[in-house]
Amino acid sequence: MVDTDTGTGTEPDHLIIVEDEPITRALLRSHFEDAGFVVEEREDGDGLTERVLASKVAVLLLDIKLPGKDGLTLARELRNVSDVGIILVTSQGEQVDKLLGLDSGADDYVTKPFDPRELISRTRNLQRRVRAQRHQRAQVHLRQFAGFTLDLNRRELSDPQGRAQHLTAGEFQLLLTFIDHAGEVMSRDRIMARIRNREWYPDDRYIDVLVGQLRKKLGETAGNATLVTTIHGTGYLFTPDVT
Ligand code: CA
Hints:
- The chain has helices at 22-34, 48-54, 71-81, 96-101, 116-140, 169-180, 188-195, 204-217, and strands at residues 13-18, 37-42, 59-63, 85-90, 108-111, 142-145, 148-151, 156-158, 164-166, 185-187, 228-231, 235-238.
- The protein has 243 residues and is of the alpha/beta class.
- It has a 5-stranded parallel beta sheet, sandwiched between helices. A 4-stranded antiparallel beta sheet has the order 6-7-8-9. The protein has a 3-stranded antiparallel beta sheet with strand order 10-12-11.
- The chain binds calcium ion.
């Protein structure tokens, strides 16, 4: 199966807390752990972006006053590359409303001293929102057929066992064409009209080569094809319902 981070409730509630004050950090950690979160602590923003991108964490608590890069700078940087939910943790007296107005990239903020129950409930709300968005995006960008999944964003094809392979631009265009015209005999001319672009005019022979490459990635050969069948003298037929 392709892991789409669907937020179905089976994944743990993972949270990253970035806070340089050990006492506040420990306090936050214990509140969130009591609420069932798996907490990762960080003292500053070093390596934070890489960590967020490598993880599936949905929400981040970010202190504003940090050594090195401050929370607002980090929030802006993260927002450029990630959809992670960001809650800024501020001290009283900081002009947060003004700062948030400057396109900080944060989703919410809390002011110390905070009410743990409210903080947890806001964190959960944001987590739900982020996961719902991710789920929606994942759905739009996946096409499924005969146990295979095609990820349109990554141009990646996963077989029924979940093994993923990268497709070249040509293979990808060809497979999309087949999916859109499943059950129709596609002549080489029609296929070419669909997959060529301004820089690229494939010929008949190239289509045959591409089909060969795609078949290999679908685990088939010309002599043993159930998904992409050769229709002699005409072209190809994609029949994903025949498995
Ligand atoms: Ca601080």
